[in-house]
Amino acid sequence: MLKTENLSVGYGNNIIVKNINLDMKEGEILCIIGPNGAGKSTLLKTIATYLKPKNGAVYLDGKKIHELTPSQLAKEMAIVLTERVNPGNMTGFDIIAIGRHPYTDLFGRLSKEDKDIVVDSAKSVNAEYLLHKNFFEMSDGERQKIMIARALAQEPEILILDEPTSYLDAKHKIELTLLLRELSSQNNLAIIVTLHDIELALRIADKMALIKNHEILAFGYPENVMSREVVNNLYDLDNANYGEYIGYFELKNKIKIKNKKVFIVCGGGTGAPVLRYLVKNGYEPVVGVLHKNDADYFIAENMGIDIIAEEAYDPISYEKFEKAKKEIDHADAVVYTKFPSGKTNILNNELVEYAKNKYMKSIFYESDISVLKDI
Ligand SMILES: Nc1ncnc2c1ncn2[C@@H]1O[C@H](COP(=O)(O)OP(=O)(O)OP(=O)(O)O)[C@@H](O)[C@H]1O
After folding, report:
1. Mapping DSSP to helix (H, G, I), strand (E, B) and coil, where does residue 136 land?
2. Residue 27 C-alpha to ligand 1 middle, in angstroms?
3. Least crowded by CB within 10 Å, which of 25, 165, 193, 272?
4. Whole-angstrom distance between the N-terminal and C-terminal Cα of the chain?
5. Interface pTM (ipTM) of the complex?
């Protein structure tokens, strides 16, 4: 339904992103991500026809979008920008009603149907309670809902949103992303959205376009394109790693100010809080023995922590076990968690016993991280 063909976008003689070839269907969400200044908003504004293409074209249902009249376009596309708006003394209802302009008469009079659509639009973003409230008395999250309701009142086929979660707290960010998902599937809306929060983007996008260095670095299913390598490269990360399996960033273990080695015996993700605490506080963690498909392995690897690991599913070898014991010999403490039971962990339990027999500081972590504060 929407397609860009060899599109280049920019200002004056300055091309910001070139050769953009994207396509999307009804009911899909396309997320555009990339570093600050990459050209995400410039691309959105070009698709929204606020800017003319420098080259190529944008097609909506086979027609060049820049050749549609403003009134034709207003029935097809609605836009919610980031800029904070100051509409004066208007209620939620008044603002949403602006969305009906493409359908009202010259005087902007609302029919009964228009009014019903305004109320329905408010309902679909859970903002019915804001209809009679003044816009300037609303919170950022409430204003965002009203702006989306205004866009929905336009009854568009495509909804374009520039950074809709910028001013929202975690709960409202999640609520908004779920709402977009709902709108795309229930109303069959195509949604194009720029997001800085790639953890959320990954979870709502059907397609993802990554922009960097004036071009599209990758375009496709987020599950395919969001590899650790690609995301690290997108943001030029050298002090963090994107963990592709879990879909979030882990900070690397760089500042080892404590000069203390801590051996961690964990597994199945139970070590995550311990590893984060030790990295944050400048210890030198070594973790093991882990299998290479263990959640703690992925977490530790993304943090750049030393890991003693065995291939996934292979039994732990004598060699790895001895290596772990040597690390324990040089450690200032051993921390162990309530890791899952299993064959591997019989050996890992032995490591804990080994440390205890050597009268080393061995600390059990279950839920209170302060047990680590005296290492
Ligand atoms: N009106 C304008 N005239 C000229 N250059 C502009 C204009 N608006 C933005 N730019 C430039 O275009 C480039 C891309 O800006 P754009 O706002 O599209 O990036 P972005 O990816 O949306 O960034 P951010 O994540 O910081 O919002 C930047 O170098 C910016 O300075």
Report:
1. helix
2. 28
3. 25
4. 60
5. 0.97
